[in-house]
Design goal:
The chain is α+β, with helices and mostly antiparallel strands and 177 residues long. It is built from five helices and ten strands. Strands 4-2-7-8-9-10 form a six-stranded antiparallel β-sheet. A two-stranded antiparallel sheet has the order 1-5.
Length: 177
């Protein structure tokens, strides 16, 4: 009887550990290279961030009226940035912000859809949240697919690698006093 109890307890613990593991999604480098026609970096204003359950009625959306273009990426850099994006793992926790927030990367696809990645830090009355997501929206900003969560610092890395302007590069080379 003790052996059966130990086996049942062990299986229950293993099931609990495996059941809590989020799914991992990836973007195909080949599909990204074939389908991406334009890449732009935005500052997206989300005044009321709200965490949503993807399986619920409310879905994330994208509103271009809240996005300010910072910079478009030259096509000669597409392969490098798309390789970095394809190597990233996107964890499927089933929750997402109601809209992107902060630094936002938009990959325009040949079919009219857009892949949107963002990373942000935001505060509520009780807590500070570090958040990043990857979605696919149609051209009207309606959610097509939730790809998954991404580290909020991934967008900072993308910005520092691919979207440094000439002025920022020159300023950073000045001696610091």
């Amino acid at each position: 009887m003790k052996k059966v109890l130990i086996i049942v307890l062990t299986l229950t613990c293993l099931l609990g550990l495996v059941g809590c593991d989020p799914g991992i999604n990836n973007l195909s480098k080949g599909e990204l290279l074939a389908d991406t026609v334009k890449i732009e970096f935005y500052d997206y204003k989300n005044e009321n961030p709200e965490l949503l359950r993807i399986s619920g009625r409310n879905k994330p959306s994208f509103d271009f009226n809240k996005a300010t273009l910072i910079m478009a990426l030259d096509e000669s850099r597409f392969e490098d940035i798309l390789n970095d994006i394809a190597e990233q793992d996107y964890l499927d926790f089933g929750t997402a912000l109601n809209e992107p927030m902060g630094k936002t990367l938009v990959l325009y696809q040949s079919n009219g859809n857009m892949i949107v990645l963002f990373g942000c830090v935001y505060e509520t009355k009780n807590s500070t949240y570090y958040y990043g997501d990857c979605y696919m929206f149609d051209k009207n900003g309606v959610l097509v697919e939730y790809i998954g969560d991404v580290s909020h610092v991934f967008i900072d890395e993308i910005e520092n690698t691919y979207f440094q302007t000439e002025a920022q590069l020159n300023f950073s080379s000045f001696p610091q006093y």
